């Protein structure tokens, strides 16, 4: 740590040898020079430099934030943690969120005059034993222009906010002494125009900073080819800091469990014949063939350790590099993407680097938690949207087993077509793609390269693709923009058709057209903003049965809510760890989205579009995906035969799994029994016998304990997996073994003679001791993000569905029933509503309802009943789908059974309050107090039910959860029909079969005290 006070200026170091006559970096104005991608930056490589490196990651960096790069630093310093964006560390420059708009109006390549510039400085002792060695400064990532100085000497410039810059600082340092490292980061630049991605704008150093030293004779790069046939080839490049290579150097290698690698003598001879032996660039090739090779895949991530050694002429070791090798082959055959010869479904998700306290800075442990969550919920692939991720994430993907689409840091969304053909940006496109590939080429997890995102299509893409195809012909490349206007086009810079947000009809029609020329894998689909991901099961039903369709990547993993301290309005920052849990910010904080920091322009809550909350708490849609991606499937057989179980995996048998039967009977509780999974190779099926007596003991329909029955196979991990402990639930496939008996007509008695007859007032409203608001018609929900951005909310508002007024028509008391007719005027005409009340012999109250929607009333949110209970009912028990939230077009992941939860836990805290907490297929439920008293409801058919502490109007009026005040009573919705969720915030709305139109709706329910 620097012992000097913060405001003490650094002491000028004694003069070194006269430096070369370099221009001052500021004179180059690198922040407005797109042709300048770097200066004195070393070539990217894949050599492991972690061993012996000197980390500079801590909070001892001196820092000051300047208003513009032209402004010289003052003497006013503070401390800042590195890595870490200054925008999350209590500076006046706060995060800003835009989806695609640039934050300033100037055209590329210009940057704004007000351009926050962070000066990071610290002293570091260079070990004396590094004398005579080559010393390298490594900066993992900086947004967006990095200017590096050591001891007052400029040592280099780098651009690309998501790849490392390395500089040779040997001539600028003094070993055995303290040296001053200064890293100046300019936030806005010409490069920002091609980093216009859909996430928060930050400024600062966001990945680790370190120093390392090598022998002058060093490994410059290592390139590994490891196909599935086990034939290993390693290409090594060698350089010397002084230029000429010494005669007699050589390389060797050792593969764990196999042995030494052999020099490729044929290659060496060819180099001699073709005059390809260089005085300053050494090239060597090593070979090995692995017998009975264990292949790498996402299901079986087998890795071999590999050591590469560089020897001096005397045989001593000058340099080493450690690698993990996965043997696998990626190829395209026809319209299929094959992994190790198998057509693999790509069950992917897009992932940004994100943390609610630190912005883009993510530790390896946090990355592991991300990928473990992704694996646990059935995903096998990640798209690194929209830039190369930290190298630690690729190491983890190799280890845990995830396919990666590795994406270059190129998105020029606001000025896409102009930049795509702008020769000033040609070098940047090629530089960003090539440096990503050079860094990540040895990772088995990388199966596809991506040229970037939403940057139109132009000559700059073709140039980058040309370099990539020449350098790495072993992997396909993709780019959505290349085929955006012609899905069947030839000679484009994409081997995969990877549209975004195409409709189900569009992709199935293309697959059936006979014009498909490449695999179709959606790069983005099923936009997860708020209560969303409707029709996901419909998509996968089509994908799994349609040749040519192979999967896609859900948008996206994270809700990008930055934790905001309400008292200051600023990001809470790294010190606020623990100020959130279970997706909810603690009192005094909230999850911030665009505009909450006063950032203008902004795109509001569009950054809250993930499958997990900002603290990585899973949203209900994750459970939907987990069941859709289940490795074990269950199906009914012909009558009298056991159910059939299928292994839906591509490479692995089911021996890593264990299972248990769960039989849920509507009127009879839940029984469990062990299940023994048979030996099932990938893609095979077999009968799965049921334990003796499990179904035989099922009471007859209509008898006590009878009723509807469902059989669930609860599948968990048998042993600890690298991504999940033993006993982790993997899936829960389910079949119905008995349908619900048709309800018998209720036995009603005359309300006129009963002392407990329903109390209906003159307006026709029910008065009940357990209800504080009587049951009335509901046609509206608090708009979801999909409803708002897709237009449904405006449609409902125009019709007046958000402000329905009940107009009583008549109250008739005949034959022991009370018949109440009402009308609800709307912009499309009145809705006729009828309720018939009748007292049952068991003290239950039967309510039969009918609603007639006029012809002009199309696409409403719901048709059903809403009422409110007395306070104190804090617990819900139900038979239906659950335990998590489900909706009509997102319910595959909610098995039917007996569930229970606290009422406060039923509500889903989406970042912008909206409709949530519903459960599909509910047959009956009970709302209970802490002492077990309360009310019960039995429904005529499986219905959509929600029980929360909020009225729809409460949710619609709030923009954040700190504005919500839960009511002491329960707000209950019983829906005869409920509109699907869809994904219309960015993509297709729900399918027609999940929409509600005009016509007659009937439903009934029985209310009884408990």
TrEMBL record:
Annotated region (Disordered), positions in chain: 1-30
Pfam families: Bgal_small_N, Glyco_hydro_2, Glyco_hydro_2_C, Glyco_hydro_2_N, LacZ_4
Catalyzed chemical reaction(s): Hydrolysis of terminal non-reducing beta-D-galactose residues in beta-D-galactosides
Keywords from the UniProt entry: Glycosidase, Hydrolase
Main enzyme class: hydrolase
Biased composition (Pro residues): 1-23
Any one GO molecular-function label of the UniProt entry: hydrolase activity
The Beta galactosidase small chain/ domain, residue ranges: 754-1008
Taxonomic superkingdom: Bacteria
Protein EC: 3.2.1.23
Family from the record: Belongs to the glycosyl hydrolase 2 family.
Protein name, UniProt field: Beta-galactosidase
UniProt source species: Streptomyces mordarskii
């Amino acid at each position: 740590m620097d012992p000097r006070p913060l405001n003490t200026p650094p002491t000028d170091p004694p003069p070194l040898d006269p430096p070369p006559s370099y221009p001052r970096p500021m004179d180059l104005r690198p922040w407005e020079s797109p042709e300048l991608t770097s200066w004195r930056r070393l070539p990217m490589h894949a050599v492991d430099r972690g061993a012996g490196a000197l980390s500079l990651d801590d909070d001892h960096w001196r820092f000051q934030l300047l208003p513009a790069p032209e402004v010289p630093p003052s003497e006013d310093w503070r401390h800042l943690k590195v890595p870490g964006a200054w925008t999350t560390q209590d500076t006046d420059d706060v995060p800003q969120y835009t989806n695609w708009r640039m934050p300033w109006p100037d055209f590329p390549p210009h940057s704004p005059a007000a351009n926050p510039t962070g000066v990071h400085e610290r002293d570091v002792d260079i070990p004396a034993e590094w004398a005579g060695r080559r010393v390298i400064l490594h900066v993992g990532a900086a947004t967006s222009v990095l200017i590096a100085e050591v001891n007052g000497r400029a040592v280099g410039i780098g651009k690309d906010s998501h790849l490392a810059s390395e500089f040779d600082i040997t001539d600028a340092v003094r070993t055995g002494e303290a040296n001053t490292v200064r890293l100046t980061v300019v936030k806005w630049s010409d490069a920002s125009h091609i980093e216009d991605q859909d996430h928060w704008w930050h400024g600062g150093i966001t990945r680790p900073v370190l120093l390392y030293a090598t022998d002058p004779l060093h490994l410059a790069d290592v390139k590994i080819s490891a196909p599935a046939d086990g034939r290993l080839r390693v290409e090594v490049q060698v350089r010397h800091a002084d230029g000429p290579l010494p005669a007699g150097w050589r390389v060797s290698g050792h593969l764990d469990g196999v042995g030494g690698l052999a020099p490729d003598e044929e290659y060496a001879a060819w180099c001699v014949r073709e005059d390809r032996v260089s005085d300053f660039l050494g090239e060597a090739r090593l070979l090995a063939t692995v017998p009975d090779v264990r292949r790498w895949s996402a299901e079986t991530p087998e890795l071999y350790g590999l050591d590469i050694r560089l020897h001096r002429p005397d045989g001593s070791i000058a340099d080493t590099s450690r690698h993990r090798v996965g043997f696998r082959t990626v190829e395209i055959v026809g319209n299929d993407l094959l992994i190790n010869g198998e057509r693999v479904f790509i069950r992917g998700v897009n992932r940004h680097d994100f943390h609610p306290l630190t912005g883009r800075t993510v530790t390896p442990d946090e990355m592991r938690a991300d990928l473990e969550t992704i694996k646990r919920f059935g995903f096998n692939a990640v798209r690194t949207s929209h830039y190369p991720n930290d190298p630690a994430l690729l190491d983890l993907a190799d280890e845990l087993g995830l396919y990666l689409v590795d994406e270059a840091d190129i998105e020029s969304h606001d000025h896409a077509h102009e930049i795509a053909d702008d020769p000033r940006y040609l070098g940047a496109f090629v530089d960003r793609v090539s440096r990503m590939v050079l860094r990540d080429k040895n990772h088995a997890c990388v199966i596809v390269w991506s040229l970037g995102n939403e940057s139109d299509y132009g000559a700059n893409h073709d140039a980058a693709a040309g370099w990539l195809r020449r350098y790495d012909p072993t992997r396909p490349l993709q780019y959505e923009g290349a085929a955006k206007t012609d899905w069947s086009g030839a000679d484009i810079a994409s081997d995969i058709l990877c549209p975004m947000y195409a409709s189900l009809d569009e992709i199935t029609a293309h697959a059936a057209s006979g014009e498909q020329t490449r695999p179709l894998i959606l790069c983005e689909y099923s936009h997860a903003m708020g209560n969303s991901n409707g029709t996901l099961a419909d998509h996968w039903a089509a994908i799994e049965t349609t040749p040519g369709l192979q999967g896609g990547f859900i948008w996206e993993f994270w809700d990008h809510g930055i934790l905001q301290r309400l008292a200051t309005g600023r990001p809470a920052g790294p010190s606020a760890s623990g100020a959130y849990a279970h997706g909810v910010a603690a009192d005094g904080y909230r999850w911030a989205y665009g505009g909450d920091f006063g950032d203008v322009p902004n795109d509001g809550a569009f950054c809250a579009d993930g499958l997990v909350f900002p603290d990585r708490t899973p949203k209900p849609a994750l459970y939907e995906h987990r069941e859709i991606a289940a490795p074990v499937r269950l199906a009914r057989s012909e009558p009298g035969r056991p159910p059939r179980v299928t292994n839906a995996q591509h490479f692995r048998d089911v021996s890593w799994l264990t299972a248990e039967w769960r039989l849920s009977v509507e009127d009879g509780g839940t029984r469990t029994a062990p299940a023994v999974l048979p030996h099932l190779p990938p893609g095979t099926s077999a009968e799965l016998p049921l334990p003796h007596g499990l179904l035989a003991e099922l009471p007859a329909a209509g008898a006590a304990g009878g009723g509807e029955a469902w059989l669930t196979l609860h599948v968990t991990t048998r042993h600890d997996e690298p991504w999940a402990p033993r006993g982790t639930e993997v899936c829960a496939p389910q079949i119905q073994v008995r349908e619900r008996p048709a309800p018998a007509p209720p036995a009603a008695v005359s309300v006129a003679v009963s002392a407990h007859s329903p109390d209906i007032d003159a307006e026709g409203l029910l008065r009940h001791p357990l209800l504080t608001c009587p049951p009335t018609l509901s046609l509206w929900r608090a708009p979801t993000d999909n409803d708002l951005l897709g237009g449904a909310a405006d449609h409902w508002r125009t019709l007046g569905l958000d402000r329905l007024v009940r107009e009583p028509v008549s109250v008739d008391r005949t034959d022991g029933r009370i018949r109440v007719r009402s009308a609800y005027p709307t912009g499309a005409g009145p809705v006729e509503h009828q309720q018939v009340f009748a007292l049952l012999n068991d003290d239950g109250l039967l309510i039969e309802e009918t609603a007639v929607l006029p012809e002009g009333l199309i696409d409403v949110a719901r048709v059903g009943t809403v009422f409110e209970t007395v306070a104190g009912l804090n617990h819900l028990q139900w038979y239906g789908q659950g335990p998590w939230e489900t909706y009509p077009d997102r319910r595959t992941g909610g098995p039917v059974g007996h569930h229970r939860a606290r009422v406060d836990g039923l509500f889903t805290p989406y970042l912008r309050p909206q409709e949530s907490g519903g459960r599909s297929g509910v047959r009956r439920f009970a709302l209970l107090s802490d002492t077990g008293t309360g009310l019960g409801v039995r429904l005529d058919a499986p219905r959509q039910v929600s029980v929360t502490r909020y009225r729809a109007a409460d949710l619609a009026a709030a923009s954040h959860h700190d504005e919500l005040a839960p009511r002491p009573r329960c707000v209950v919705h019983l829906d005869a029909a409920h509109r699907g969720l869809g994904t219309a915030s960015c993509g297709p709305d729900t399918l027609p079969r999940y929409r509600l139109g005009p016509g007659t709706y009937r439903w009934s329910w029985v209310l009884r005290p408990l």
